[in-house]
Amino acid sequence: MQKAAQIFLTCLILCSCKTILTLSMIEKQADSIIVEDVAFIKLGTYRGFTDAGVEYQKTFLLQRYSSAPWAESKAICKAFDLDLVSFETLVESRAFLNMLDTNSALRTLASISVWSDGITLSSIGSTTDWYWSKTGKKISFSIDWLPNQPNGNNDQQYCMCIARHDFSSTLKFNDCFCYGAYRIACQRTQFFLS
């Protein structure tokens, strides 16, 4: 990703939050500090194997200052050369849910919704007809859905988010209105060749 695009997007984010940094300070540290310290909170790292046996590692980051609809969230991740979160396995998805649940900044929020890369083409609230939009790959594991979800909500919820609606519940997956403004979770993926 071009350094200028990262700087521009970061300036927009910082200005909207009334944080003052000079452009020269941002330029000096554009490649390392901005992604993980200024624009994002690092949630954690997960290392595992795909269904095909390929080893990978993902670093999960939560955008600090903004919420956005699903398509804009994908674009924000892409501007930082990242992707909206997706998961290779059930174990990885549960590890990510745990990272969110144990994050000190998020623990204080009774209700939270965070975007994932999941989409559906089904209008009936199917629990199995979900795909990762980046790859088009059907999700191959059972999703930990919130109770009575996904429900499609009158054929209007096609995007997958991760949500908690009160302090007594844990974060789980939910079908959401794609135009809803939710928190943005991005990932950096690295694959290892054997």
Quick take:
The chain is about 25% helix and about 30% strand. The chain has one domain (about 40-190): Mannose-Binding Protein A, subunit A (Mannose-Binding Protein A, Chain A, Roll), CATH 3.10.100.10.
At the first level of CATH, the class is Alpha Beta
Number of domains: 1
Beta-strand content: 25-35%
Q: How would you characterize the largest beta sheet?
A: 8 strands, mixed
Number of helices: 6
Query: Helix and strand string, N-terminal first?
Result: HHHEEHEHHEEEEE
Q: Detail the poorly predicted runs.
A: 1-34
- How far apart are the termini? 27 Å
**What would the CATH topology be?**
Mannose-Binding Protein A, Chain A
Helix fraction? 25-40%
Average per-residue pLDDT, rounded, comes to: 80
Q: Give a count of the beta strands, DSSP E runs of length 2 or more.
A: 8
Shape estimate: globular
State the CATH superfamily name: Mannose-Binding Protein A, subunit A
Structural class: alpha+beta
Protein name: C-type lectin domain-containing protein
InterPro entries: C-type_lectin-like (IPR001304), C-type_lectin-like/link_sf (IPR016186), CTDL_fold (IPR016187)
Keywords: Signal
Topology:
Layout (H helix, E strand, L loop, with lengths): L2 H14 L6 H6 L4 H6 L1 E10 L5 E14 L1 H10 L3 E2 L5 H13 L1 H4 L4 E9 L9 E3 L26 E6 L7 E5 L5 E11 L2
Parallel strand pairs: 4-8
Antiparallel strand pairs: 1-2, 2-8, 3-8, 4-5, 4-6, 6-7
